[in-house]
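Worked Example 4.2. Consider the chain below.
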Amino acid sequence: MVQYMYDHMHLRSPDPEATAQWYEKMFAAQVLRSAPHGNPRIDLKIDGVSIFIAQVMNDGKTAEPPKSPYQGLDHFGLRVDNLDEATTELKAKGCEFTMEPTQIRPGTRIAFVRGPQNVSIELLERKPA
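Applying the procedure from the previous section yields the following structure tokens:
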């Protein structure tokens, strides 16, 4: 049987540099620049997770970012040890919360922030119930 392993996420941005700076500021993402096949690209690493940022071309072929909720990929999640501390830190950096910290079940609390291009990012704290 084939084994499937997580590899990366791919984002599109009209301003990849500003998008990368946002992830670096908010989540301490490591910003890596490359030029595969001569095409500049910005890659991010957040705790080993790869996020590739591609430039949106001004050719009218790329749709506007969706407004949640919508069908398809809805959000991605980042686990934190202390959601209250993360919330305080991110708010001090100017991060916009779309859902304040919420207990969804015993031992699990979540919050949501809005990233560049309306990307929804879940912050998740898991503790023994």
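The beta strands are 8-13, 30-34, 41-46, 49-55, 76-79, 96-105, 108-114, 120-126. The chain has a mean pLDDT of 92. Compare this with Example 4.1 before moving on.
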